[in-house]
From TrEMBL:
Residues 5-193 form the Hydantoinase/oxoprolinase N-terminal domain. Pfam families: Hydant_A_C (PF19278), Hydant_A_N (PF05378), Hydantoinase_A (PF01968). Residues 214-501 form the Hydantoinase A/oxoprolinase domain. Residues 517-691 form the Acetophenone carboxylase-like C-terminal domain. This is Hydantoinase/oxoprolinase family protein. It comes from the Bacteria. Signal peptide: none annotated. The lineage of its organism: Bacteria, Bacillati, Actinomycetota, Actinomycetes, Streptosporangiales. It comes from Nonomuraea maheshkhaliensis.
Length: 700
């Protein structure tokens, strides 16, 4: 029996899902084990094998592929635990990374922080100036060589960087996205001197105009590539030694996977890998449920994540920002705040209750875990409120200490605010819901959509406990909590259900529309590049689809909109059709009449995304139907739970999700216990179990 595995390594827990493609899906959840995260991965696989009743070797030998999402890249960048990198730039242009295009003080900052001009600061530079060296060469805007590459100078700066002990070298030369020949020769010369040096070229990692963003992307790729390689390759070897015959695939920010032996070369594309898994899982579930517009919400141990699916496809962004530095890598647009189950609650100097962004993480974890944590978290508050039972998580394998939770809340929140422990706990719970609700509203409205046109999918360890609260004032039609066999391992399910996705792009700034022969030439080149990339994946695909797009903007504007390009053959009418799509999209976001074609339109970057299906069905199976709506057969106990500060503690029925059947209806207040999470159904909310075992919440 062949299997597909999804492994999601989060900041607190490692989630895993296995599907046999015939309707059987099992999941597992184990604590993440930093810094040796591969230990947690192997434990999760062992638990999957136990759920299936087979040995690890048997499971791995029958596994078609493992899709892996990792926080390794993003954590390394955020925490500064990266490789020492040297930069080789065109003479006179090394300071682009330090000048930061005059936007370094504001990139990635909130509106409030941007307005606070007195506290604006540039971030620490990605690399010190003594490791940013220059070589003589010059290519112009058309890709023509004006000044040949000084190869002796390249050898000299390479020896200097090697002597400084760098682990990787980033190469970013002027206009290299139009002609990468000089960069490729620089790499050859580096490897003559240091054959094992990790080298990354901007013309391969970020062939996009704008020197600062291209340089920062190339440097950050070099910073995380060696670390990702030292994590993935030994993990792959260990899996193969234990019996894995299929490939280890790594999720990328744009929602698809790449083989583990190729991932370190394009390490920057994995920065948002764990953020993408939940959105991809949401797409697969939406296909089964017939939902076109979905807001995916993932409340993990560290963060709250929200993504949008519109007309069946995820909303994408051309790049992202980390530590105030831009990354030129297409990504599923995911909005995030540090407000997960392990978010630390505190009282600031003004006497205000704060939740996050700091987290207790896996070690030491919330106070109630009993692992040495003394600061209160969202999880501690939920335990005090009765939302979580003292039996704990992971089917009782992770018992919780109510006394430690109460003490942490008393010391750090209740006494500073003059509240009882219970009052402080409900305040923490309500702040979590309010923060998440605010983020959702901004994410949907700022993208030009009406929340009433969407359903919400809520998952993650803490998502089901809070979703009814943070969606209450959003105006959505319903909230779906994926339960069944995936429960809080939904992001891992998304990984297992993902496709291989590669993208290629080139910048060619010009007025638009362009002649259809130009369109044909650009996209033919990009599609040929993608075909070579797919051939290198060493994976069998059952179907390959291509999505073309071009980034357009009105003249004198500084941002572009990615605009879909028709799949049909290019004709004289194609450019006008693309322009009409751009104008409709622009007005949908900015308002009717906002467009102004008379200003002129410019094309900046052309892009093709290849989605290659792995041919392995990972759909959620249907569950048995109930005889009627009465869920009493699943009732296991009543416990005192506080879901509302006005009502206080109320005797609340608690149901075992494993006994729920399709058609059962729960009237709030109610709790649904799942080994890896808990679902809260407040008063005024009704929960209905659908045919896939999901709990669908609706407001009365």
């Amino acid at each position: 029996m062949p299997y597909a595995l999804g492994i999601d390594v989060g900041g607190t827990f490692t989630d895993a899902v296995a599907s046999d493609g015939a309707g059987r899906i099992v999941s597992a959840k184990t604590p993440t084990t930093p810094p040796n995260r591969e230990v947690g991965v192997m434990r999760a696989i062992e638990d999957l094998a136990g759920e299936l009743g087979i040995g690890v070797g048997e499971l791995l030998s029958q596994t078609d592929y493992i899709a892996h999402g990792t926080t390794a890249s993003i954590n390394a960048l955020v925490q500064g635990q990266v490789a020492d990198v040297g930069l080789i730039a065109t003479k006179g242009h090394r300071d682009a990374i330090y000048i930061m295009n005059a936007e370094g003080r504001t990139l990635g900052r909130s509106a409030h922080e941007i307005q606070d001009t007195l506290r604006q600061r540039k971030p620490a530079p990605l690399i010190p100036k003594y490791r940013a060296l220059e070589v003589t060469e010059r290519i112009d805007y058309a890709g023509t060589v004006l000044v040949p590459l000084d190869e002796d100078e390249v050898r000299q700066v390479t020896r200097t960087l090697v002597a400084q002990g760098v682990e990787a070298i980033a190469v970013c030369l002027l206009w290299s996205f139009k002609n990468g020949a000089h960069e490729q020769r620089v790499r050859e010369l580096i490897h003559e001197i240091a054959p094992d040096m990790y080298v990354t070229l901007s013309s391969e990692v970020s062939p996009r105009i704008r020197e600062f963003a291209r340089t920062s992307t190339t440097i950050m790729n070099a910073q995380v590539g060696p670390r990702l390689r030292t994590y993935l390759l030994p993990l792959q070897k260990q899996l193969e030694e234990r019996g894995l015959k299929g490939p280890l695939l790594v999720m990328q920010s744009e929602g698809g996977t790449i083989t583990a032996d190729r991932a370190p070369e394009h390490a920057i594309t994995t920065v948002g890998s764990v953020l993408s898994g939940g959105v991809v899982g949401g797409m697969r579930l939406a296909e089964q449920l017939g939902h076109r517009n979905v807001i995916t919400t993932d409340v993990g141990g560290t963060t709250f994540l929200a993504g949008l699916i519109v007309d069946g496809e995820p909303v994408m962004a051309p790049g992202s920002i980390v530590n105030q530095f831009p990354i030129n890598a297409a990504t599923i647009r995911v909005h995030t705040i540090g407000s997960g189950g392990g978010a630390l609650a505190s009282v600031d100097e003004g006497g205000n209750l704060r939740l996050g962004p700091r987290s207790a993480e896996a070690v030491p974890g919330p106070a109630c875990y009993g692992n040495g944590g003394t600061r209160p978290t969202n999880t501690d508050a939920n335990l005090v409120l009765g939302i979580l039972g003292e039996r704990g998580l992971l089917g009782g394998r992770k018992p919780l200490r109510l006394d430690l939770a109460r003490e942490a809340i008393r010391e750090h929140v209740a006494e500073p605010l003059g509240l009882t422990v219970e009052e402080a706990a409900i305040a923490i719970h309500e702040v979590q819901n309010a923060q998440a609700g605010d983020l959702l509203r901004r994410a949907v409205v700022q993208a030009g959509h009406d929340p009433r046109d969407f359903v919400v999918y809520a998952f993650g360890g803490a998502g089901p406990a809070h979703c009814a609260g943070y969606c209450q004032d959003l105006g959505v039609s319903e909230v779906v909590v994926p339960l069944g066999p995936v429960a809080s391992a939904f992001s891992a399910y998304g990984l297992a259900a993902s496709d291989v996705v590669l993208s290629a792009e080139l910048s060619d700034p010009s007025s638009f529309p362009v002649h259809h022969a130009v369109l044909e030439s650009h996209f033919a080149r990009l599609e040929a590049d993608l075909q070579r990339g797919l051939d290198q994946q060493k994976v069998k695909f059952h179907e390959v689809t291509l999505q073309r797009e071009v980034d357009l903007r009105y003249s004198m504007q500084v941002t572009e909109l990615a605009t879909a390009v028709p799949d049909a053959l290019f004709t004289e009418r194609t450019g006008e059709e693309i322009l009409e799509r751009f104008e409709r999209q622009y007005e949908r976001i900015n308002g009717s009449g906002a467009g102004y074609r008379e200003a002129g339109v410019q094309a900046i970057t052309y892009r093709v995304r290849a989605k290659a299906g792995l041919g392995f069905p990972v759909g959620l199976p249907e569950i048995p139907a109930a005889d009627g709506p009465d869920p009493s057969a699943a009732l296991v106990e009543e416990r005192s739970v506080c879901l509302d500060s006005q009502l206080g503690y109320v005797a609340t029925p608690v149901y075992d999700y494993a006994r729920l059947r399709a058609g059962h209806e729960l009237v709030g207040p109610a709790i649904v216990d799942v080994p890896t999470t808990v679902v809260v159904v407040p008063a005024g909310v009704t929960g209905r179990v659908d045919r896939l075992g999901n709990l669908v919440l609706s407001y009365q």
